[in-house]
Amino acid sequence: GVATLSGTVDNLGSKLDAEKAARKADGVTSVVDNIQVRDDSATEQGMLEQARHEVVTYYAYGIFDNITLQANGDRLIVGGQVTMPFKKDDIGRMLARVKGVAALDNNIEVLPLSSFDDDLRLQLARAIYGDPYFVHYRIQALPPIHIVVKNGQVTLEGAVATTLDRTKADLAARGAGLSFSVTDNLRVAKVSS
């Protein structure tokens, strides 16, 4: 009744799939998973680029979510905040399939459900993205300014093209009202359009 798995796969997701399939096989009472995760062509930078691509193309990732990525060897560390629990799970499953990822630390925080925070998110999005000054950000598939709201506390995350853009976004958020505080973590960096 013991199934022993061995071999090599190029990502954690494939290893977990093999173990899950073995547990479902008739007559198997336990599984010894000796599968190694290894991809000699994978680099930390390559893992981060593929992981970022997976996050930004995820259908439910939006301006009210913020994901951070860090690589330490073959370990991918994921942080940030999302508005719904299913997003944390989905992102974790997607990133486990990134080539070279042998271990995944899913440290994403699920923001508390709050109609007050939801109203504040919409008000902030209107204040920032409704401003004609920000039209060049608003028309992007995934606008680069992320609005994280937790218990009335607002944090702006992401990147803008200029210091003036950063200042105007901060002022728009502070002028929107209803928030207890605004933390501006926007970076000034090249923003793709």
The shape is: elongated
Q: Tally the helices: what do you get?
A: 6
Going by helix content, strand content and strand pairing, the class is: alpha/beta
Oligomeric state of shown chains = single chain
Question: In terms of per-residue confidence, which ranges show pLDDT below 50 for 5 or more consecutive residues?
Answer: none
Determine Rg (CA atoms, Å). 20 Å
> Can you count the beta strands?
12
How is the main sheet built?
4 strands, mixed
Residues in β-strands, percent:
25-35%
Please, what is the average pLDDT? 94
N/C terminus separation: 56 Å
Helix content: 25-40%
Order of helices and strands: EEHEEHEEHEEHHEEHEE
Can you characterise this structure?
This protein is α/β, with parallel strands linked by helices and 193 residues long. It is 36% helix and 27% strand. It contains six helices and twelve strands. The protein has helices at 12-24, 44-56, 85-95, 115-129, 135-138, 163-175, and strands at residues 2-5, 8-9, 30-33, 36-37, 66-72, 75-82, 103-106, 109-110, 145-150, 153-160, 181-184, 187-188. Strands 5, 6, 7 and 8 form a four-stranded mixed beta sheet that branches. Strands 9, 10, 11 and 12 form a four-stranded mixed beta sheet that branches. Strands 1-3 form a two-stranded parallel ribbon. Strand 10 (153-160), helix 6 (163-175) and strand 11 (181-184) form a beta-alpha-beta unit. The chain is elongated. The termini are far apart.
